[in-house]
Amino acid sequence: MYGKKKERLYVYDLLPNPVITYPMYYNVSHTLHENDIFHDALIAVHLCDFSDYQRPEYGNAIFQSLYNGGFVIYKEQYVVGYFGGKLMYLESSGWKGLQATEDIFNMDNWLI
Predict the structure, then answer these.
(1) Which end of the chain has the smaller Cβ count within 10 Å, N or C?
(2) How far is CA 26 from CA 7, 54, 98, 105, in A?
(3) CA angle 58-111-92, nearest 5°?
(4) What are phi and psi of 2, to 5 degrees?
(5) 82 with 63: CB under 8 angstroms?
(6) Residue 67 and residue 3: Cα distance in Å, rounded?
(7) Using 50, 70 and 90 to split pLDDT, how confident is the model at 65?
(8) What band does 16 get if pLDDT is binned at 50, 70 and 90?
(9) HEC string of the chain?
(10) Is the peptide bond prior to 23 cis by the omega test (within 30 degrees of 0)?
(11) Domains of the chain: which residue ranges?
(12) CA separation for the pair 93, 27 (Å, rounded)
């Protein structure tokens, strides 16, 4: 009947000196709050360090990473997950649906 309670995950709890300080926190589920793979993606975005990521050649590489429980990065700014058959990007208030624009099909906008 009621949605699951969200928890605030503060960026400063993940890293002491982030390069990108906005947003300061994300509202996420308890499961994601404890997920190390998710934390790694957030740390990469907030440090602007994408050395562990690469640009995919094809779109199926993005979905393969998502199906394996990973998170991808869109435009070096958003952490993207796959929930309920939808691509979702993370904002401070929670997950939002990723709109299917022309940019989404450009592989240069993605990091896996």
Answers:
(1) N
(2) 8, 25, 17, 26
(3) 130
(4) -105, 145
(5) yes
(6) 24
(7) very high
(8) very high
(9) CCCCCCEEEEHHHHCCCCCCCCCCEEEECHHHHCCHHHHHHHHHHHHCCCCCCCCCCCHHHHHHHHHCCCCEEECCCEEEEEECCEEEEEECCEEEECCCCHHHHCHHHEEC
(10) yes
(11) 7-111
(12) 6
Q: In the prediction, which pLDDT does 2 show?
A: 60
Q: Is the pLDDT of residue 51 over 60?
A: yes
> Nearest CA to 100 among 16, 112, 29, 80?
80
